[in-house]
Design goal:
Radius of gyration of chain B: 35 Å
Distance between the termini of chain A: 19 Å
Number of helices of chain A: 4
Number of helices of chain B: 30
Strand order of the largest sheet of chain A: 3-4-1-5
Largest interface: A-B, 50 and 31 residues
Oligomer: heterodimer
Distance between the termini of chain B: 75 Å
CATH architecture of chain A: 2-Layer Sandwich
Shape of chain A: globular
Main location (chain B): nucleus
Keywords (chain B): Nucleus, tRNA processing
GO biological process, one term (chain B): tRNA 5'-leader removal
Protein name (chain B): Pop1 N-terminal domain-containing protein
CATH topology of one domain in chain B: Gyrase A, domain 2
Radius of gyration of chain A: 18 Å
Strand content of chain A: 15-25%
Helix content of chain B: 25-40%
Subcellular location (chain B): Nucleus
CATH class of one domain in chain B: Alpha Beta
Structural class of chain A: alpha+beta
Helix content of chain A: 25-40%
CATH architecture of one domain in chain B: 2-Layer Sandwich
Shape of chain B: globular
Strand order of the largest sheet of chain B: 13-14-15-12-6-16
Structural class of chain B: alpha+beta
CATH topology of chain A: Alpha-Beta Plaits
């Protein structure tokens, strides 16, 4: 069947600069928030789908000019954005998802009303929204376990949230570790089969 | 982006939907559901804001973990919801051929595997299902029911009164006991307890059979017609002939209700099977000495090589069937119909002297299409009277039914339905000692050779592989005992396949075959009478162990069946290059009353290739005949009486359809341009006007009624005052008597026609054949494009002397003439067009030039300026009786009839058998080639 083909980019927004964050670490002394948690902060509430769209469009215009902007204009859409976890799913036509990816990668600051340094990481490119969502679930489970492991290792008592997350159980614990600094299960030899745009 | 999803409001709608945003503002009552909004809602994921997730703007682990957990839940929920939004109701997933319109939502009517789901959905919806039993009758219905009740009570009373005074007829053997009990209340005048012996009815020969008396419930519907044994099956699933216009006094399925043109083609050629109930085909039995029977057949002008020659040896022994045209005995020997003839196997005892053998009576079955039955019947009676010693003729029309099965799965399906019964048990032999006149001879181990052969045919995909016109006769068990049928075991290994091939090659049935029991009236009736009731069958099935079939009981009926394959070799007649795989078909003859159970077992047989055999109607039968390039009787034989009647029927139907359309939207046959500036269709536009072809154009003031009709039709446009009269005329038009058949119009046999066409000067036609009105049946293939329709006119090429230019133009269209150098092998795209250019935009200029030159040399297409005009009426040679796009050949083909006189002698001109075909009511002629079939 002939149909319009899309790519769905699963995106994480990271805030490496702790100083400009709108959230401060927990006030209790000695309660050191682990680095994994600090690294994946929630986004400010002003960040929403519209802002992300603007960010991408501006980025593409800057990098690829009117050509790029025109190419992606028809298909670009933010399908999902959760400020609490800084996760987004962005849809773009299959032919031009690289333009969007490039614009995301070159972003260093969120635009005006937020105006905060950030790093945007494309963690998954998928042909269907379902696979992107599955990956998001997997990653959320992974980060939960990582946070719990970090909390346990620093002997922080009172974090009894493990029982509250029944959803993240099926995964093995082995993939908590990073692989060469990249938190991805993929084997290095893997070929991305939908990389045909 | 989307706001957090609120909890769903209390559900007021019928359907329990997934929580959607649209429910926050309940839609107005009569507003149709916005499906787009619904899917959008289903796909929106709920999200959490940071403020909510992280209280007091503090970043801590527990909030972090909770926010992730929330995300996971939201995503999973979203996935489930969007999947559900795409979901369809259970009854929407029913396969196409099982879909129904009324009560489609009723769980009891959806396939079993969907029933569980459907039940749940119905419960969710709170959909009420009403059964007929519990439905409150409407006011009108109530009145009818009350009448029925009253009538029933009255009937019961009358019956009781009648019974009390009835003379009781008892069998001699039965002990007289009860009859007096009922008469005790009456005065005992009728004390006739002395048994009256019921006389065995004498078989009436030479008398037309009457249809079996239908059940009282259905009797009023069968006054002027009869139902096929499978009428109820077909009436539910097919369009039948309208009650007011039965075909050949039968109610016949015309076409299945479901779309079936392509499925039928596929089932018959690639995978599956198609079956027809052919019980309407008439059967006649002749009985007498072999010499007399041969004499009768000779009177019907069956070929001498079959009657006495070696070619017909096996047929005369009763091991093959013969299909052939039968003709009238008296000159001019009009063709009657194609008939199938089957001899009963003669008992073989070597001791009998030749004189005894000569004296022995033999039987012969003649099967003929019902449209020609009466003509043949009269002819047979006449022949039987003059035969010496006498031949008795018996009409077996409602005693023997038949079906036909074709397709690669035909053999398999029949094997699943026909379970040979073992050798006759003792009890049956006992009860029929008086009845069976046939001797079961031969060594006992050879007795079951037919049954064994039949069972070993598993894996045969084309009955044409068997010896031509092979015949199998055996007894089968009641198929209802093995219902529902199960897929049979098919040969898988090479060795098994090889065994099948060996069997087909050796065909042991020829060596030993006992007389088919179907020829025995007593045995036929015994089988019909012994058929147990469905209730009894169900009880026996209930007693059987799970998964097993009920035990065979000696009281079971042994249904005598006769199976034969029919496949005429395509190459003998020299048909015009029709090289389709010649797939044979099985014809099954069985007692009339046994057809229905056999039919159900056949229809529900699960084929090994999936699905079940399809059933076909008359249209499907004609379609497959047409695709096989075989003429269909009576439609394709206008030279016969039955064919002429069919033509009149069709003409009237088409005319009715034509008249029904408004004047502006129908073809004006009077004014239509038919080439070379001439206007007006040749003859009537809605029929194959053979009268016109034979008689030539009418004189201007002529007495041709059809022409007058048309003239009036044309005039009335100018004179609106006449429209009243005209419309009256329109109404009465269909009721007028059909045009009489031209007296000399006749159909020439293919062989005679071929010989005559090959050398018209030397071959002598029989003196009685009126050459000017002898027709030949031909198969047409269009050489360029176009599809011939029924009623299309066939022209010969214009003569070289009178229209040399036109002739040259037409010959230039011949594909072999224009570009002999170009062999376009495997190029796609439109047929007979230039090869496609490569896709690149900038071609080298030489290619463009070459293309241009080719295009200039290419013959003109229809509608372009240089396309040749259609020849005039002086070159009209015949009409297309069946024409359509042939799915097998992938182009338009047709069957038609030509006047021999007009096409003979054109052979030596070297143009093969080229003709021009023009559809009725159009002006574009197409080049075609014809071949005698």
């Amino acid at each position: 069947m002939v149909r319009i083909k899309h790519r769905y980019l699963l995106v994480n927004i990271l805030y490496p600069d702790t100083k400009s964050s709108h959230l401060r670490p927990a006030s209790k002394p000695g309660d050191d928030v682990p680095y994994t948690v600090q690294f994946r902060r929630p986004s400010p509430d002003q960040v929403n789908g519209g802002l992300l769209m603007r960010l991408i469009r501006d980025g593409v215009v800057e990098l690829f000019g009117d050509y790029g902007s025109g190419k992606i204009a028809g298909s670009l859409q933010v399908k999902y954005f959760s400020p609490a976890t800084s996760t987004a799913t962005i849809r773009v036509s299959r032919e031009h998802y690289r333009l969007v990816w490039a614009a995301l990668t070159f972003t260093t600051r969120l635009p005006r009303p937020v105006d905060q340094p950030c790093v945007i990481q494309v963690v998954r490119v998928s042909g269907t929204i379902r696979k992107a969502e599955e990956e998001a679930i997997r990653r959320a489970g992974l980060s939960i376990r990582r946070a719990e492991a970090a909390a346990k290792s620093s002997n922080v008592s009172g974090v009894a949230t493990a029982s509250a997350t029944p959803l993240a159980v099926a995964e093995g614990d082995d993939d908590v570790d990073m692989f060469n600094g990249i938190e991805d299960r993929d084997e290095p030899g893997d070929v991305d089969d939908d990389d045909d745009g | 982006m989307a706001p957090p999803c609120p909890p769903p409001p209390p559900n007021t709608k019928k359907r329990k939907d997934a929580p959607t945003n649209s429910q926050v503002h309940p839609p107005k009552r009569h507003k149709p559901t916005d499906h787009r909004q619904k899917t959008r809602d289903a796909r929106t994921l709920s999200t959490q804001t940071s403020n909510k997730a992280f209280q007091n703007g503090e970043l801590d682990i527990s909030s972090f973990v909770k926010s992730r957990a929330y995300e996971i839940r939201a995503l999973e929920d979203g996935m489930a919801r969007s999947k559900k939004a795409l979901n369809r109701r259970a009854f929407q997933q029913v396969p196409k051929e099982l879909r129904r319109r009324t009560a489609s939502h009723n769980v009891k009517r959806v396939p079993k595997r969907l029933r569980e789901r459907g039940k749940r959905e119905m419960a969710d919806d709170n959909t009420p299902t009403v059964t007929a039993r519990r439905r409150k009758p409407t006011a009108h219905m109530r009145l009818r029911l009350e009448t029925v009740k009253k009538l029933r009570a009255m009937g019961a009373k009358r019956k009781a009164a009648k019974d009390s005074v009835k003379v009781t007829v008892t069998d001699l053997n039965a002990p007289p006991s009860e009859p007096t009990v009922s008469t005790t209340t009456q005065k005992p005048t009728k004390s006739i307890t002395a048994p009256i012996k019921a006389r065995t009815p004498k078989v009436k020969r030479s008398i037309l059979a009457t249809p079996p008396l239908p059940k009282a419930k259905f009797r009023k519907r069968q006054v002027h017609k009869s139902w096929l044994p499978t009428h109820l099956f077909h009436a539910k699933r097919a369009r039948m002939t309208p009650p007011s216009a039965p075909l050949w006094r039968f109610s016949i399925p015309v076409t299945p209700t479901a779309k079936s043109y392509r499925p039928t083609h596929r089932a018959s050629h690639e995978r599956g099977a198609v079956a027809w109930d052919m019980s309407f085909v008439s059967t006649v039995q002749l009985e007498g000495r072999e010499g007399s029977l041969v004499g009768v057949l000779r009177g019907l002008r069956i070929g001498e090589e079959n009657l006495v020659g070696r070619k017909g040896d096996k047929w005369r022994e009763g091991r093959r069937v013969l299909e052939g045209f039968v003709y009238e005995r008296e000159p001019p020997h009009h063709a009657i119909a194609p008939a199938t003839m089957i001899w009963c196997v003669a008992p073989r005892d070597e001791s009998a002297s030749p004189q005894e053998k000569e004296k022995r009576k033999r039987k012969l079955l003649l099967r003929v299409h019902p449209s020609a039955f009466f003509q043949l019947w009269e002819e047979l009676l006449r022949l039987a009277k003059v035969a010496k010693p006498a031949v008795s003729v018996e009409d077996l029309r409602f005693e023997i039914g038949s079906m036909e099965v074709t397709g690669p799965g035909a053999t398999e399906a029949l094997l699943g339905a026909l379970w040979p019964s073992g050798p006759a048990p003792e009890s049956l032999a006992d009860s029929d000692t008086t009845a069976t006149a046939i001797e079961i001879d031969g060594p006992p181990e050879k007795e079951t050779v037919v049954e064994e052969t039949w069972s070993a045919l598993a894996g045969l995909t084309n009955p044409a592989m068997l010896p031509q016109n092979a015949l199998l006769a055996f007894n089968v068990q009641d198929p209802r005992l093995h219902h529902p049928p199960r897929t049979i075991k098919l040969p898988r290994t090479d060795a098994e396949q090889h065994r099948l091939l060996e069997l087909v090659a050796s065909w042991p049935v020829d060596a030993a075959q006992k007389a088919p029991e179907l020829f025995e009236r007593k045995l036929r009736q015994a089988a019909s009478a012994r058929m147990p009731s469905q209730k009894a069958i169900n009880r026996r099935k209930g007693l059987a162990a799970p998964g097993l079939y009920p035990e065979v009981s000696p009281k079971d009926p042994q249904i005598p069946v006769l199976l034969y394959t029919t496949s005429s070799p395509a190459n003998t007649t020299g048909a015009s290059g029709k090289s389709s795989p010649n797939s044979g078909s099985w014809t099954l003859l069985a007692p009339w009353k046994c057809i229905q159970p056999l039919w159900y077992s056949l229809m529900y047989y699960p084929l090994s290739t999936g699905q079940q055999p399809r059933f076909g109607g008359l249209d499907q039968y004609r379609q497959l005949r047409f695709e096989a390039g075989k003429p269909w009787f009576p439609g394709d034989f206008p030279g016969t009486k039955a064919g002429w009647e069919w033509e009149c029927l069709e003409r009237r139907r088409r005319e009715g359809e034509w008249r029904k359309r408004p004047r502006g939207k129908r073809v004006n046959y009077e004014r239509v341009e038919v080439g070379e500036g001439r206007r007006g269709e040749v003859g009537v536009g809605w029929g194959c006007d053979w009268e016109r072809l034979l008689g030539g154009p009418p004189v201007v003031d002529g007495g041709d009624e059809g022409a007058m009709e048309v003239e009036k039709d044309g005039e009335s446009r100018d004179k609106p005052a006449e429209t009243e009269k005209e419309s009256e005329k329109d109404k009465e038009a269909p009721e007028q008597a059909p045009p009489p058949k031209p007296p000399h119009l006749t159909q020439l046999p293919a062989r005679q026609a071929l010989a005559f066409l090959a050398s018209p000067s030397t071959t002598k036609l029989p003196p009685h054949v009126h050459l000017a009105s002898a027709l030949i049946t031909v198969h047409l293939t269009l050489l360029t494009r176009g599809v011939p329709q029924p009623c299309a006119r066939i022209f010969r090429l214009p003569s070289a002397t009178r229209h040399p230019d036109l002739r040259r133009q037409w010959l230039a269209l011949l594909p072999s003439n224009n570009h002999p150098s170009q062999k376009r092998s495997g190029h796609k795209g439109p047929k007979h067009a230039l090869p496609r250019l490569p896709k690149q935009g900038d071609l080298p200029s030489h290619l463009v030039h070459q293309r241009l030159a080719q295009a200039l040399l290419e013959p003109a297409r229809a509608g372009e300026e240089g396309y040749p005009e259609c020849p005039g009426e002086e070159d009209l040679v015949g009409f297309v009786t069946t024409g359509n796009y042939d799915l097998g050949a992938g182009q338009g083909t047709g069957l038609g009839s030509l006047l021999v006189e007009r096409v003979m002698g054109r052979e030596e001109e070297g143009m093969g058998r080229v003709c021009i075909v023009r559809n009725s009511g159009t002006g574009v002629g197409r080049l075609g080639r014809w071949g005698v079939i």
